[in-house]
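REQUEST ID: PR-0412
SUBMITTED BY: lab tech R.K.
PRIORITY: routine
TASK: structure prediction, single protein chain
INPUT:
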Amino acid sequence: MLLPPFLKANPSDQRSVFNGINEIEAQRIMEGYEHPRSSQWGTQEAVKIENASRNRYANVFPWDKNRVHLPVDEKGSDYINASFIDIDGKHKYIAAQGPLRNTVHHFWAMCYKESEEQHNDVVIIAMVTPLEESGIKKCHQYWPNKNTVTLDLSKASLEDHITIPSLAVHWVGESYNDKGHYLLTELELRSSKKTKRVYHFHYFEWADAQVPPSSASLLSLAHDINALKNSVASTAVPIIHCSAGVGRTGTFIALDWMLQKFPKCSASFSCSSNTDPLESIIWSLRDQRMMMVQTFSQYRFLYEVLRSFSLNRNNQ
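STATUS: complete
OUTPUT:
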């Protein structure tokens, strides 16, 4: 059975590569702290005292160079713990931490503003974390439900100088997908000027720092998000988040990129090629947000998915 060399590497060699990526990133983070103004790895906005309460964790920040900016006036802070991700100019995402109680209005203001920037009225969100694990809060429930159908964000937005008037979220409906094991909630994100349709995909079976229980369900989720995007708004940039917005978020983005790229491109799987596309995608993600694909088990999981793609192709 023919496999490209990078899919034949043993776990020890893969761990060595992954450790090397982490070591270089640690150097980047130190450089950013020591030279915050000149380094491309600076995190000046994230570490400001006035922004500390907007970070879920004290060591996971967006790089200044590609952080998302909130729509605020001159008196407000435009900081949110979220990063623009652009892979090869074709596959774009926003990677974000899971909203805190005090950042719910920031998250929805970001959604609204970015939808405007994309010139569409659609917001697509993939949430790949449960709200709570082992009694630990992983994400605040930032969207309304059928029992409380409206979430009014206007007061909090005004207090933080957000420039979107009368911001509110309204529950429309929900359905559970058995194949993808996710809950799809449809919402409306409203301002006094217009209404945007929100599609909120919640995959809640994935434990923090672990691999998902099934690659099939996660691939189904990615497929369904892409199908929806292509049918309702091709310019929509999906917003992906877990708790910190790096481990599960980075793994899902890498998986989605693999799903879109490799099944359509047999040349990328040349059995004589020494190029490891997964190592390249991890570098690309880490260049744009620290700690993306956070654990070695997540890194290995992606190799196994890529290996299954290759085996399926050989069997066709």
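NOTES: The first helix runs from residue 11 to 34.
REVIEWED BY: pending
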